[in-house]
Specification:
By secondary structure, the chain is mainly β. The chain is built from no helices and 15 strands.
Length: 177
C-alpha cells in the first residue's frame, strides 16, 4: 500500500489502509503489510462503532501524518486494538498516533518507532499498554497528552530521542507472575 495522495482536507484520503465503518460491530486484522509514502497515514482506523482489531507484522515508512493512526470520536464505543511486532519509521508526524475515548484499549507489544516527530503520540482518555518496545531517534519519544492513561511494564527502550523522551510520566505496572 503506497503512494496514496491526500486531499489535505479529507483524512479519508491518502491512506495505505483505511478502516472507517459506520454501523455495527467490527473485527479487523491487518497483517504482514508494508504501507509507505502515503499522504496521510499508512494505516488509519477511524470509527465510532464497537471494534476488536489486530495490527501485526506491519511496517509503515514515510507516511505524511502517522505510520499507524487509531482514532475514535465517540467516547462510548468500546475499542480493543492490539499492535504487535511492527515498525513505524520516518513518518511525518507520529510513528503511532492514538486518540481514544474511555472505553478504548490499545495494547502495543514489540513496536519499533524511530525517525518521526513523535515515536508515539497519545490523546484522549483510553488505556494504552506498552510492552517490549523500542522508541528511539524521534524528536519526542512519547507524547502523552492525557496523563494516567498510558501504562508500561518497564521493559521498553525509550531513549536517544532529540527532544523529551516522555512528555508526561507513564504509569508502571508490575506483571503478575
Amino acid at each position: 500500500m503506497q503512494n496514496f495522495v491526500s486531499s489535505g482536507i479529507d483524512t479519508n484520503t491518502g491512506n495505505g489502509v483505511l478502516i472507517d465503518p459506520f454501523l455495527g460491530t467490527i473485527k479487523f486484522a491487518v497483517t504482514n503489510t508494508i504501507a509507505s509514502n502515503n499522504g496521510f497515514a499508512g494505516i488509519y482506523y477511524n470509527s465510532d462503532v464497537p471494534t476488536n482489531g489486530v495490527i501485526d507484522h506491519v511496517t509503515t515508512l514515510y507516511n505524511g501524518t502517522a505510520g499507524i493512526f487509531v482514532s475514535t470520536t465517540n467516547n462510548s464505543a468500546p475499542l480493543v486494538v492490539a499492535i504487535t511486532n511492527s515498525v513505524a519509521s520516518n513518518n511525518g508526524g507520529s510513528g503511532l498516533s492514538i486518540a481514544t475515548g474511555p472505553n478504548g484499549t490499545v495494547s502495543i507489544d514489540n513496536l519499533f518507532a524511530t525517525g518521526s516527530s513523535d515515536g508515539i503520540a497519545a490523546g484522549g482518555n483510553g488505556v494504552i499498554l506498552l510492552n517490549h518496545s523500542v522508541i528511539q531517534g524521534n524528536t519526542d519519544g512519547i507524547v502523552n497528552d492525557t496523563p494516567n492513561t498510558f501504562f508500561t511494564y518497564g521493559n521498553n527502550a525509550i531513549d536517544f530521542n532529540s527532544g523529551s523522551n516522555i512528555s508526561v510520566p507513564l504509569n508502571t505496572v508490575t506483571k503478575l507472575r
